[in-house]
């Protein structure tokens, strides 16, 4: 039965994600009148707060992370917030949480949404505590923030624990990249325009690049990141979701089941990767924007073999994509912060301009996801002139900046869409269990290949595009990374 939640329990309510994303997103939705009018938000964490002190805490987070023009209704939003201190590992505290979550004396029957923004090790005790307190019964759904395990086995353990209390239709596994407008626009680009889909296959596309580059180092994620590394932190979730959206067949409709059915087919079609088709690296001291930055081991305070960079040549073994390489690249302390998808088309089979001294270049589609959301299509055009010395052709870009194209629309935080969908029960932009497990199976195969080959990260200076071997990985196929 479909329902809109009138109560939200926010676990990890004093954490970094809550301060930077969750509270600002909820406040922005409130300001736009998009939250249910009677929504009550019960925030919980181990920190010692009462309602009023937590509202002071939340106000500071909003003033830091939410633009001023989106704060007009901040005080009204803060009145929605209530706080219940809870040690998630101690079952007795959940009864008090349940009491704070109940509706008022009107006895109105509504729905409950639960958002877990906690360490994965707390998922099982949290769900057990919720079940013991009766908070998993009736109109209840749960949202789970990544990471969902560290490998296939641990992911299954978490999924089994969640499934013991919630059916799949009530489980919302979050990958915040799916809340980004340009990621959603990828579906519109492919399936709302007849221009692209006929050529969206191996006959016309030479290769695809997906880059997720970060300029930051460890920041506040020291313990988590050293246990995870770039492969599990970025490739397993964000990058494989982007790849699935690029590669999926047209779904029968834009609903959760149809979209996710097509994505999981792609993930299951990924060919097992050999260690020779990957490059791993770890940044050393270098310079970014003219400032010296320390190396990974210096930031960590000890030596480590955790990769901060990974490049992979992936292949999707199905009819549409047979033989088309997908080059995935992600890393920390790279020269710029950018997430983009580059679709490189094949060149024309025969150029009628060659006899006139002109050369052609293949068309290229660049989908920018962050920091700027834009779509750029590179086409060949004739350079103006009388052509007495021969025809000149040049590649020119049709550039659509989303901010300019939709200037009258508010640019939203990705979590706004995801939190609203959680409250209303739309699973389309959330990840299904079989997707997660297909992703982990592929990732575990790569890690096993590294172990068999005794692969260790190659050093690269901070402020560069990773180890030189990553350039060679693409160049041996005649491909250059899109770094401009």
Description:
The protein has 484 residues and is of the alpha/beta class. Helix 1 (16-31) packs across helix 2, helix 6 (152-163) runs antiparallel to helix 13 (433-452) and helix 8 packs across helix 9. It has helices spanning 16-31, 51-65, 74-78, 93-101, 123-132, 152-163, 181-191, 222-247, 256-269, 296-300, 402-405, 414-424, 433-452, 468-475; strands at 7-11, 40-45, 81-85, 112-116, 140-145, 171-174, 205-213, 278-284, 286-288, 291-293, 309-315, 325-331, 338-345, 364-370, 374-382, 393-401, 458-461. The protein has 2 domains: 7-145, Rossmann fold (3-Layer(aba) Sandwich); 181-409 and 433-475, Dihydrodipicolinate Reductase, domain 2, CATH 3.30.360.10. The radius of gyration is 24 Å and the shape is globular. The strands form 3 sheets. It has a 9-stranded mixed sheet with strand order 16-15-14-13-7-12-11-8-17, with helices on both faces. A 6-stranded parallel sheet has the order 3-2-1-4-5-6, with helices on both faces. The longest helix is centred in the middle third of the chain and has 26 residues, at 222-247. Strand 4, helix 5 (123-132) and strand 5 form a beta-alpha-beta unit. The mean pLDDT is 90.
Gist of the model:
The chain has 484 residues and is an alpha/beta fold. It contains 14 helices and 17 strands.
